[in-house]
Amino acid sequence: METEQSHDYLLVFDNTEDTQTLAMLSGLHYNRSFLSQSNTVTAVFSSDENGNGAGFRAVYKSWKPKPIEVLGEPGGIVLITQRMLEFEKENGQLKRFVENGQQERADIMVKLKQLSAQIRTLTDENESNKLDNEVLKKELAEYKSNKEKMEKEMDTLNKALDQRPSEDDVAVLRTELVHAQKLMDEISQQKDVEISEHLNSIRLLNMEREKQRCVMENLQKQLEDTGSHSKESSELVRSLTSELEDTRQLLVTCQKDLEDAKSDSTQKGKRIEELHGKVEANLAELASCREKIAQLEETVRVSAREIDDSHAMNESNLKKLTQLSDKLEQVIEEKKRYETEMSKFEEKNDMHTNSIRRLELSNMDLTNELSSLGSLLEHERQLIDEKNSIIASKDQELFSLREDLERSHIDNEKLKSQCESRANESESLAKQLLALQENSKELMDRISKGEDGSKAAIEQLKIENQKLQEEIGQLTASFQEEKNGLVAKANEQEKVNREERKNAAEKLKQYEHQKETLERRLREAEDEVSRKAERFVEMEKEIEDDRRIANERVQKLKEIIRVKEASISEARKQLEELSTQLTDKNRLLREKEHQVEENRRKIEESVNRIAEAEAKARNLEAELSQSEAQRLAVTDSESDLRTQLSDNEALLASFKQQVEKVVVVFYGIRSVP
């Protein structure tokens, strides 16, 4: 800052970025003080009685106020007072806005406290949800292990089902049993037919033997009768006896043959009885084999039925297993879906935690912003106070300017009156000069008329004229100087007034701009605060909704997990029941397989026995064929004997006729006297 003082002004140069010149009039003949300021410097000037600048005081300012337009006319002062009142109103409004902002800040701090409490509750709920998720993960791991165990059991059951006898083996056994039964039926039918034929042949032989015995008894009786009546005909009897002896010998031989045949027949009967016993034993064995075969067939049917039932049970178990596997797959899919949902829920929780952190950060930012806004509001309040003080100082300056203007008006009036008085004086002096000139002319005339006048008077008049001319010159010079000084002062005052008006207008514009910026900033702050409050309310609602949705989802997940646990427990029970049923079925299948093996072994033994019986039957058939050949030979011998017997009977008949004739002759001879 630089200063320079002249005869009329004290200049202060402000060499800052906004270079301005502050000036004070000097040379006034009374004490005064003058305040002038730039954007960075406030200068206070003072002068003494002689108008010399006694000193000045400059104050640097850190803040640039807006200029206020000061008009030199009284209307400008009214405008300034109106603007000052408006500024006071606006300051009151700004104070109210600041108070409202502080109240809203307090409300926002309360809401932030509530939000922090809600955030803490949400974090606690998230921690509890994380613990629940860990518990659910452990349960899911247990379910996975149980599922793997169940899958292993299902694999073992499937392997056991694959290792069981197939339907083809059962069908082959059935066909073999049916074929063996058919063979046994055919063999038994053939044996029954052969045995019935042998029994019929034995019955016929017994009947023929009885007939021969009866015939022989009749012949013996006839012979005895003929022996009693053949005393007279001894010769004939002797001849007949010789013949009878021959026939007896023949009969003895025949009897021997018959005895041999009887012994053979008894042996054959015994053999036949043995064969009958063997056949009956074979029949009993066949019956037992049939019964066993029937039992085996029944057991095979039962086993087939049980196998069918086991197949049906296995199919149903397979269906149940498939259903359970489907259910397990569904459970796995649901578990995966729940895991994805849980991962999504965890992601959402992470997002919520991140959003909560962001909210906390935004809360901190908002608190910082609010604190900064509070500090800014305090700063604005301080600025407003400073502006109020500046406005008060400006009011004082305006009042001082008013006083200066009034003084300048008074000075102007005084100067005008002085100018008028000086003009009047100059006119009076001019009139006096004219009068003096006229007097001088008159004197000159008088002098010219009367040269005898005193030269001293003329000289005195000349001296007075010169003095008057000098005084007039001085007066005109002083008047001109005063006139020029007054004109310069008036011009300078007008310049100062214009500059002050301009500065006041600029300051008013700056104040208005600053007011507008403050109002805009306040509106923006209010909008920001309201928007953030609405955002806080929306975030509270969203957090409440998310927490409610999360609680509902957690409850649903817990309910679904409880249902799934119940279904899994039921499935586990069903699997345990199925495993017990499958173990029972496997045990029954092993027993049935053991029974089938035993039945197969028995069938093989029975088939071997049947083969042995068939061999025995073939041997019996061979023996029967031999006995049949012997029987045919015996029948041939019997036919020979029968022919002989028929011949003997014919001879006996002839002998009877002869004996009857002899008897008739004897009785005729006896009856003749």
From TrEMBL:
Pfam families: CUB (PF00431). Residues 98-160, 202-355, 426-630 form a coiled coil. Residues 4-60 form the CUB domain. Keywords: Coiled coil, Disulfide bond. It comes from the Eukaryota. Gene3D superfamilies: Spermadhesin, CUB domain. InterPro entries: CUB_dom (IPR000859), Sperma_CUB_dom_sf (IPR035914). CDD domains: CUB (cd00041). This is M protein repeat protein.
